[in-house]
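User: Can you model how zinc ion sits in this protein?
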Amino acid sequence: MPLETMEGLVVRVSDWSETSRIVTLFTREHGKLRALAKGGRRLRSPFESSLDLLNHDRMVLIRKTSGGLHLLTESSQITRFSGLAKDYQALSGAYLVAELLGDWVEENDPHPGLFDAAIGCLKDLEQAACADGETEKGVPKWNPRDRLVVLELALLIDLGYRPEFVGCVGCAKKAEKGSAAFAFGSGGLVCRGCRLDQRGWRELPERCWKLARNLVAAIELGGNGWAELSVSEESARREVRRWLGEYLSWIRGRRPRLMGWQEE
Ligand SMILES: [Zn+2]
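Assistant: Here's the modeled complex, given as C-alpha cells:
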C-alpha cells in the first residue's frame, strides 16, 4: 500500500498497548482518521512528542482502504501551541476545539476550510494566553470563549448546519425588531405563527440574534468576527454562547463535555 503525506491536528490520543498509541487526527486532506502509532509510547519514540494532543503535524501514513486503523509511519511537528499552557481559559478553549473536531468531523470527509479555521483559532488562543495586557499592534487579544463561538459557527456553516437569521424558516417573513424564536430542528428563526409547528425552540433577544446573524455574515465573507464581537456587550456575547451551546447539543444529541466552560 502506498505511503501518503498529509497535514493533521491531533484531536484525541489513547493508549493501545504498552508501547503503541492510537491517535485520532483531523487531517486537511482526508478529514478525520484514526491511526495506530507503533512505538508511540516508547521513551525514544520515532514520533518524539509530535503525537501530543493538539499538535499540528506533517504525517506519513499507510492508509487502509478496507476500514480499520491506518498505520502512522512518520510524524513531524509543524506547530505545538505550547503557549496555551500558560492560561487556563485558552487551554480550555483549545480542548473544546479538539473535542468538537473529534466528534463532528467524519472519516474520509475532508473540510480544508474548517481545518484552516481550527488552526487559526488555536493560534489566536495561544496569542491570548501569551499576551500580557496589550498585544502587538493590530493583533486582537481574544476572549477564548468568544473565539470558540467563531470557530463553532464556521464548523456549522462548513458541515451544512448554517443557522438562518434573515427571515422565518417557515414562511420567509423577514425578521426585524424585538426578540425572536430560534427553532433548533429547522436551524433558523421562526415567527410567532410558525413556531407552533416546531419541536424545539429558544427565544433570543434582538441583540443576540442580530449579533449571531452578523457573525455568520462576517465568517462567510472570510472574516474572523472580531469587528462584530469587539463592539458587542458581554451580555449579548454570553447569550450567543449559550444559544450556540444549545444548538450544537441539539444537533448531536449530546452536550459537548466542555460546553459548561463556554457558557459561563
Ligand atoms: Zn413564519
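A couple of observations from the model: Residues 168, 170-171, 173, 190-191, 193-194 surround zinc ion (CB under 6 Å). Helices lie at 88-104, 112-130, 144-158, 192-195, 206-220, 226-230, 234-252, 259-263.
User: Helpful, thanks.
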